[in-house]
Amino acid sequence: MPLVTSKEILLTALENHFAVGAFNANNMEQVQAIVEAAEEERAPVILQVSQGAIRYAGLEFAASMVKTAASLVTVPVVLHLDHGYDFEQNVLCLRAGFTSLMYDGSKKPFEENVAITKKVVEIAHIAGIPVEAELGRVAQSTDKLSYEEICALMTDPHQAKEFIELTGADSLAVACGSVHAMKVQEAELDIDRLKAIHEQIPHIPLVLHGSSGVKTESFLEAIQHGICKINVATYLNQAFTRGLREAVAKYPDEVDPRKFLAVSREYVKEAVREKIRLFGSAGVIDSRGGFRSPARQFRSVEIGAAE
Ligand code: G3H
Ligand code: ZN
């Protein structure tokens, strides 16, 4: 089916206490693995590309791969810009047919973050495309921050309310204890903070970044308190490279890259399936592409048509 926006699937997730997996992809095998797992699990899925992925694959190439993959399946697929660090990147993605955007001004002062987010929201909403923003900052594991430093970057619940009122953003990435690119699952989320944020902005879907390092129990609690979109990148990269390493070791004389990449694709697919089941989004989509319960039918987006 054609791409859908993230607006309706995240609001449905919020109402029904499940989270939609937002999986990062950089190449064809990852795109195929993500969309195939979602189709088999009857789950809505967000396929996201970062600015790094756009530099690697090219904007048009990345967008075309995802559009093609979506056209071959009967579950809703969203094409999302992950961590768009500037206004220009958001405009370019809007033009390329992305159905969900992110402006990440989390490294900027509050006022500047508000001003640029607002500008992105205004232009995206003209085209009917929702925008994720970030307040507080989810750090990188390479920043090597102390626990106290991570806490200092967490989202302030009252500021979150003000931020949403000022910007009109459709969803909010919050910092509540996760860190990007962790290779072991040992981070515990600050659930009390999450509850407080959710209480301040109960109608706004919250987004969890840096999920590869988060403990399973923390996910389950977070989904009960407003987390509707969970971003997964490192965990899938680990699966991809594990498959590659094993295949190269198993077939040392093989020169056909397909022999290796097919194994990687299968490993990524299983990792995506595992996360979809954990997030509670497996089985929510019926055979026609609508939500099973409540009975809602997706509208596909026409780029340029206001919602
Ligand atoms: O935006 C992408 C995600 O936050 C991915 O984080 O690499 O820790 O899974 P991760
Ligand atoms: Zn992130």
Globular, elongated, flat, extended or rod-shaped: what is the shape?
Answer: globular
Can you identify the CATH superfamily? Aldolase class I
Low-pLDDT stretches: 297-307
Strand order of the largest sheet: 3-2-1-8-7-6-5-4
Average the pLDDT over all residues and give the rounded result.
Answer: 95
β-strand amount: 5-15%
Count of folded domains: 1
**Biggest sheet statistics:** 8 strands, parallel
Explain the layout of strands and helices:
Blueprint: H1 6-16, E1 20-24, H2 28-41, E2 45-50, H3 51-57, H4 59-71, E3 77-82, H5 87-95, E4 101-103, H6 110-126, E5 131-135, H7 147-152, H8 157-167, E6 171-174, H9 191-200, E7 206-208, H10 216-224, E8 227-232, H11 234-250, H12 257-279
Parallel strand pairs: 1-2, 1-8, 2-3, 4-5, 5-6, 6-7, 7-8
Helix pairs in contact: 2-4, 2-12, 3-4, 5-6, 8-9, 11-12
This protein binds glyceraldehyde-3-phosphate and zinc ion.
Short summary:
Helix content is 48%, strand content 12%. The chain has 307 residues and is an alpha/beta fold. Mean pLDDT is 95; it is low at 297-307.
